[in-house]
Amino acid sequence: MSETRFDVLCIGNAIVDVLAHAEDSFLATHGMVKGSMALIDEARAHHLYDHMGPGLECSGGSAANTAAGVASLGGRPAYIGKTNHDTLGEIFAHDLRASGVHFATSPLSGKADPATARCLILVSPDAQRTMNTFLGACTRLRPEDIDEAVVRESQVVYIEGYLWDMPEAKDAIVKAARLAREAGRGVALSLSDAFCVDRHRDEFQTLVADHVDIVFANEDEIKSLYCADTFDAALQQVRAVCKVAALTRGAKGSVVLGENELHIIDAEPMSGVVDTTGAGDLYAAGFLFGYTQGKDLATCARLGGIAAAEVISHFGARPEADLKGLVAQRFSL
Amino acid sequence: MSETRFDVLCIGNAIVDVLAHAEDSFLATHGMVKGSMALIDEARAHHLYDHMGPGLECSGGSAANTAAGVASLGGRPAYIGKTNHDTLGEIFAHDLRASGVHFATSPLSGKADPATARCLILVSPDAQRTMNTFLGACTRLRPEDIDEAVVRESQVVYIEGYLWDMPEAKDAIVKAARLAREAGRGVALSLSDAFCVDRHRDEFQTLVADHVDIVFANEDEIKSLYCADTFDAALQQVRAVCKVAALTRGAKGSVVLGENELHIIDAEPMSGVVDTTGAGDLYAAGFLFGYTQGKDLATCARLGGIAAAEVISHFGARPEADLKGLVAQRFSL
After folding, report:
1. Of A54, A58, A86, the CB nearest to B99
2. Would you list the domain boundaries of chain B?
3. What are the strands, taking DSSP E only, across chain A?
4. Confidence check on the interface: ipTM exceeds 0.90, yes or no
């Protein structure tokens, strides 16, 4: 690949996370499906916040977590996502830039517009996270927010599936993918969530078959995409259509498919899982960092596993440790 | 003591913490004294925030951390402190109430008034924290914010020394202490910070000698109070004037003085120290919880040590574990 200004451009919902511990009974009382992401309106956001425990605020957003991960690995990421000019928007922008991510999307301009998005994340005693997202300003992502120069100057454009929940964001994504193609860049897609796949199955199937170079999915998502009963059945389907697929399986590690390639990579050894928020995002970070450095697919998967293991060892969806140093410890690239 | 509605009323600066990792070189570049608390204005707050790493926001404030600790131990705390009606103010109030603390101080009403306070906390690789506080709305704590009924209905009123940095807050504190005395309640004071003691040495000496039942201080603070060269020299001075003094010494544990009593309590065994933010606040929580349950001074000190050990084992200044359960594991009260 020719030298570009950025390795990975991530496009997604710009969200500040509010993390709190919660028992399973709390999820049941409030009608949540454990481990999933639900879209909620402002009234429900206030209601849940009033009832949940003390929170810890940190910047999140699936693709933004990936961008922060790429930076921590020593890569050169950029990000596009919509915030408002409010306290949470300032926190989001500060944290992303302080992580080393190029972020220049102009925020909405104030009180008349929807507030910066927040995601109320309930972390269960078994470390699973259940997410409740109030999208707010994210619903205003427009094609004009896609900076052509940044797309052309990024080796891979990485898009989170969550964006499909908003019609206008979809136009923005289509524009980004088209520009990337025209410039000879790669397009990667994360399926994000099994329920999100459920809402957009046909479109996602077409995308994966015809428009995407690399697809990221966990076991539930890839099964949902093909209405498959087993992981293997889904695997055979995606294998028939996709250039590269990186499929994560939690403690079972990941499976990576390429043209005439299939690798089964065990999970990194680790002691305690504290909070699984961000596991998939950081796997994608490690994988894409390796990919844009020209590494083979098995190495990309291993890098994904190392980054994911770090993020689930603590509260929050962005790396705390210096991933570059961590990777250097594990193996010299 | 007669039955009251609350065990401990904590009064202090209502602050949201922004925690970030920082190397010692960052502290040096920005002229900070490692381990101390500095008051900063809004311009410096913006400047430091622009230059520091990605943050993690969580509710803080010394006395508020103590109140949250008392709640986690199973006690009945109340809190008085001033916020604004803004995003950080809402976060502060939510977290405190969700922890089980009674908090009914009316916030300032908007943009014309100073914003809710924030404290930029740089955590060094050796787990020490260096604090930069923009006081904002805290500077507006007034005598009318002191709810008489709550003071009368609390066994102990606990005041943080940081309040002395604001003349009007001092009037509020004097009112609270007077009301507590009239109702036959105890008054406790934390010296908060060696530099804070330096700014108010004469007043603090008078308070400790004449108006306070329990004083909390770490080694630097008690030495600063009496301009003493050694811990022992400071110990002899405070012993001559104070009813109860609880002196914390980090890894060396704590020393507690009462009338004709002196106890030396070793630190709780623990593995890794992650972030010392909140150590003193949680020690006070454990101690005051025991004290208001009628426990002997040595037991109070041990409870303080258990609560402090929990809070320094993770990022942030409030307990993550259920302290009541932790204490039950260590010894049955």
Report:
1. A54
2. 6-13+61-112+139-330
3. 6-11, 15-21, 37-39, 56-59, 77-80, 102-103, 117-123, 129-134, 154-160, 186-190, 214-218, 244-248, 254-258, 261-265
4. no
